[in-house]
């Protein structure tokens, strides 16, 4: 028979073999998730593991088996956006400034070359540069930018090697021109670079505030969080028991997260306002929250590799998110989103009452100024019956300096108890 030493060796061998098998299995699961879904938010990762296990089992009998649909019903959505106002116009103006400077420098080179060695073709080139300068006023669109860059590259700069030989002064002018183009864009880029740096600073500041506040929010109740950065930052949160594989969700946690979002938006608005005077280009940001009281169904979109709203009943919310930045106030016709305000868009009276509670609380805490403005909104394509509240953030300390005490209380006691206390 086996002695104890042989039994121990067999037991160790079995443990190693089992561990290797389990590791290979986990690696196959992770590979499936990576191929089908890329990186997942930790809150919903469990559901994708379950789907990947089902896929592995299905592939034993069918090689063409696909990942099952992943659906989370009864989820409460929260959406907010901090957008740089008129960013396209500001960038187009920056592009016009750069192109005008580049055209003027090219003109100087041609004029200097003609003065040193008169040639009719140089006069004709100067004439065409003047025509292009007349086109560049305060702003250029993307097509004009491409066309002007092509003109400079193919009809002016192509002659620089020959013009350099005319005189030392022309050579120096061309050297200065080339030095100004010594950047990834290979063009005059001073104004556009200032815009890009300003946009990056604004986006990085907003994203940093959202990300730094997320751990506290996840401690309140685990939820799905996603953000997208373009000309500003928009964020989506989904909270629901189905996201965690549970049966029920106490709406206390939903209200807590709504107050958290509003508080974070106040911090973002304060920080963005302070940034304006410090940036190379003084960009202004607008801030907006979309309220949805009724739970919706969200589905993982494999083509976009992110959670999104599904179903005809819920599509109104998705349309509202896409078009709300164009909303206008019915009484005045002005845009709802203005730089020094936070707008809260809603469609039900219960939503207004809930958020007015939060606003009064934050006013009392010194986060907002006292006036709460109510607005009726003009209908958007596919969406009608919207209203909004607008509030102005109060001046305060730098972002983060006065955040922790209130967030800590939200985590510890919850929104309802905190507002009653």
Task: Based on the model shown, name its key terms.
421 residues, alpha+beta, nine-stranded mixed β-sheet, 9 strands, 14% strand
Report on the structure:
By secondary structure, the chain is an alpha+beta fold. The protein has 13 helices and nine strands. Strands 1, 2, 3, 4, 5, 6, 7, 8 and 9 form a nine-stranded mixed β-sheet that branches. Strand 2 and strand 3 form a beta hairpin. The chain is extended, with a radius of gyration of 30 Å.
Question: Strands, helices and their partners?
Answer:
Elements: H1 4-37, H2 45-59, E1 71-84, H3 87-116, H4 120-135, H5 142-156, H6 160-163, H7 168-180, H8 190-220, E2 224-230, E3 232-239, H9 251-276, E4 285-290, E5 296-301, E6 306-309, H10 315-323, E7 342-346, H11 349-364, E8 373-376, E9 387-391, H12 404-413, H13 415-420
Helix pairs in contact: 1-2, 3-4, 3-5, 3-7, 3-8, 8-9, 8-12
Short description:
The chain is α+β, with helices and mostly antiparallel strands and 421 residues long. It is 53% helix and 14% strand.
Compute the number of strand runs. 9
The number of helices is: 13
> What characterizes the major β-sheet?
9 strands, mixed
State the secondary-structure class: alpha+beta
Low-confidence stretches: 398-404
In terms of DSSP E residues, the strand content is: 5-15%
Round the mean pLDDT to the nearest integer and report it.
85
* Topology order in helix (H) and strand (E) letters: HHEHHHHHHEEHEEEHEHEEHH
The coarse overall form would be extended
Residues in helices, as a percent range: 40-55%
Gyration radius, to the nearest Å? 30 Å
Spatial gap, N to C terminus: 74 Å
């Amino acid at each position: 028979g086996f002695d104890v030493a042989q039994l121990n060796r067999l037991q160790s061998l079995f443990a190693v073999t089992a561990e290797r098998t389990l590791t290979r299995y986990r690696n196959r699961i992770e590979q499936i998730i990576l191929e089908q879904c890329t990186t997942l938010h930790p809150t919903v990762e469990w559901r994708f593991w379950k789907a990947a296990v089902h896929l592995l089992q299905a592939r034993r009998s069918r090689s063409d088996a696909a990942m099952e649909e992943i659906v989370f019903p009864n989820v409460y959505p929260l959406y907010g956006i901090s957008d740089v106002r008129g960013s396209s116009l500001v960038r187009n103006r920056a592009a016009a400034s750069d192109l005008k400077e580049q055209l003027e420098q090219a003109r100087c080179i041609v004029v200097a070359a003609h003065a040193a060695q008169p040639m009719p073709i140089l006069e004709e080139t100067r004439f065409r540069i003047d025509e292009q300068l007349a086109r560049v006023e305060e702003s250029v669109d993307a097509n004009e930018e491409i066309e002007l860059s092509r003109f400079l590259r193919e009809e002016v700069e192509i002659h620089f090697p020959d013009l350099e030989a005319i005189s030392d002064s022309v050579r120096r002018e061309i050297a200065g021109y080339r030095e100004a183009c010594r950047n990834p864009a290979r063009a005059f880029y001073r104004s556009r670079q200032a815009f890009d740096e300003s946009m990056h600073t604004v986006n990085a500041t907003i994203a940093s505030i959202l990300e730094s506040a997320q751990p506290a929010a996840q401690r309140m109740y685990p939820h799905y969080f996603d953000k997208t950065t373009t000309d500003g930052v928009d964020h989506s949160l989904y909270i629901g028991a189905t996201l965690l594989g549970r049966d029920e969700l106490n709406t206390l946690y939903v209200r807590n997260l709504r107050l958290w979002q509003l508080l974070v938006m106040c911090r973002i608005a304060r920080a963005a306002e302070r940034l304006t005077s410090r940036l190379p280009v003084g960009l202004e940001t607008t801030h907006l929250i979309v309220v949805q009281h009724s739970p919706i169904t969200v589905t993982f979109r494999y083509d976009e590799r992110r959670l999104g709203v599904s179903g005809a009943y819920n599509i109104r919310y998705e349309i509202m998110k896409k078009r709300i930045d164009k909303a206008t106030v019915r009484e005045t016709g002005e845009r709802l989103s203005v730089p020094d305000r936070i707008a809260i868009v809603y469609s039900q009276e219960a939503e207004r009452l809930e958020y007015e509670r939060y606003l009064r609380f934050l006013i009392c805490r010194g986060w907002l100024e006292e006036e709460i403005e109510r607005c009726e909104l003009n209908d958007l394509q596919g969406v009608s019956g919207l209203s909004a509240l607008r509030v102005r953030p109060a001046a305060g300390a730098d972002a983060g300096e006065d955040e922790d005490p209130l967030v800590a209380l939200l985590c510890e006691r919850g929104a309802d108890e905190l507002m009653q206390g």
